[in-house]
Amino acid sequence: MTNISPEIEARRDRAKEWFESLQTRIFAELERLEEEAPADLYPGEPGQFEARPWTRETGTGGGIGGHLKGRLFEKAGVHTSAALARFSPEMAAQMPGADKDPSYVSASISLIVHPRSPRVPTVHMNTRFLSTAESWFGGGADLTPMLDAQRSQEADDAVLFHAAMQAACDPYDPEWYGKYKAWCDEYFYLPHRKEPRGIGGIFYDRHNSGDFEKDFAFTRAVGEAFLDVYPKIVRHRMDEPWTEADRQEQLVRRGRYVEFNLLYDRGTMFGLKAGGNIDTILSSMPPMVSWI
């Protein structure tokens, strides 16, 4: 049994509905890009998402895993989940409010896109609502160019991406972008390599301003910003040819992505320990990598 109030469950249901509607729109936009990609650079049939519903083994809930293997996008995963469950004692010790009651509800969307072209950046985005005895939103979006020549925050793609994230933040609080950009830079960092994973974006967790409607609107704005800016970046880059040396640089950079996700990513650890779906949690792994 859980001890979550009807009001909190209703908020979770609203978040779940939003995340699932955003998932459907992202499916459609990435499939549209698959159709638009030039055939000389991306031979074969355009990819389409396969939606795989799943059910939690503990508590109630589940989600929809969206998986695509295409010609433009070598691998993409766009997943939603929702739960009404109880944390294990180990997890409860790490969650605000769970020491009073380990019951929780959650809803989320999480995505990763690994383009085939080294010229098109990899991207990650997730947003979520979680409530124990306390409630909060978390998430963000970050961009990872594969080529060193594009891995500057002054590069065109980085400027466009950061402008979109700032536009999502500023209407709600002009201080949030600077705060969450800095948090992103700190979080998506590989200490053992002494290098950032990419060019950043925003990252926020345990976000609760005291105004649920404001925080929910902000989280929706992050999703809308992603849906607007990433297709622009893809369309800007997908016509550019690449070399075998570019491809090798991409595969090595993807190896860094694997290292971060398996060694440091809190979302990966949370999903595995909270009884999530392994296929969706580990779909962030790129299809081909190289270590040299």
TrEMBL record:
One of its GO terms (molecular function) is coproporphyrinogen oxidase activity. Keywords: Heme biosynthesis, Oxidoreductase, Porphyrin biosynthesis. Pfam families: Coprogen_oxidas. It comes from the Bacteria. The keyword Repeat does not apply. Pathway: Porphyrin-containing compound metabolism; protoporphyrin-IX biosynthesis; protoporphyrinogen-IX from coproporphyrinogen-III (O2 route): step 1/1. It is an enzyme of class 1 (oxidoreductase). GO terms for cellular component: cytoplasm. One of its GO terms (biological process) is protoporphyrinogen IX biosynthetic process. InterPro entries: Coprogen_oxidase_aer, Coprogen_oxidase_aer_sf, Coprogen_oxidase_CS. Its EC number is 1.3.3.3. PROSITE patterns: COPROGEN_OXIDASE. Homodimer. Belongs to the aerobic coproporphyrinogen-III oxidase family. This is coproporphyrinogen oxidase.
